[in-house]
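$ run holo --ligand "zinc ion" --emit tokens
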Amino acid sequence: MNGSEPRRADAPAVRTVLGDISPADLGVCDAHDHLFLRSPQLPGQELDSPSAAAAELAAFREAGGRSVIQWTPHGMGRRAGLLPELSKTTGVRVVAATGLHQAVHYSAESLEQLRAYGLAALFVRELTAGIGESGVRAGLIKVAGGFHGLDAHARWTMTAAAEAHHATGAPITVHLELGTGALDVLDLLCGECGVPPHRVVLGHLNRSPDLTAHLRAAESGAYVALDGPSRAHHATDWRMPDAVRALADAGFGDRLLLGGDTTTAGARSVHGGPGMPHLLRRVRPRLVTDVGEELVEQILTVNPGQAFGVRWT
Ligand SMILES: [Zn+2]
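-- output --
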């Protein structure tokens, strides 16, 4: 990893697993992906192999990638202690996450314990002191909405995320269930809880290919992270370039982010799937056809630095 510029203490920074860096040093970035992931919802498809994670990162770097923003939240097998070494050996900058996914990804017992500990306190601890005993600090808070709405669990986690944002400055990334519910999420996070819209990153919006709904979400000022491909979302993945073009045409090119969102071992490039390199091998040239090289480079380099570079407090 080369030549970081000197950074003022109060300047925006991206919090990587190796420390805070200037947003300009992020380079070509996969803005939504996973190196480790475990959930009862994905039995037998866990991302839990350090060697496969290293190989995938190396393949991404070989394709021109320089940084990966990981969205795996608390309690889903993050293996945070391994991330600094993986980042060092592969030369790819890595950002880890705190936060909480939908209730189906956790046992009732673990949610009970989190309720007793205090969710906002946990998020703040992972953002400022580190994840578990690893000393590795998270650089974002990941939460999740529901299908066209928010249940009590989503309201609990988003309220805690907003509290942790106000305490630290951390960006909040949101899993939108099948791409829906963005306006409900924005009403809660920004309307009720006072999070500035530009500190919110909406994920998976393209999985519901309603271009008008995309525009309404982008008008708020939030970042829009489009992703894929994946087998589970093959039916709508082909609409992603349409979404990029429509948002760019409407003047929201500076709000766009792109990610691979590799969630299963079989989807990794090192196992024959698209994986992280696909973003640069195939998605990048495809989008250049639609919106031109300059905007695509901005989406891959400048925009992630602005979305994930914050003034930490
Ligand atoms: Zn994801």
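-- notes --
Residues 32, 34, 71, 261, 263 surround zinc ion (CB under 6 Å).
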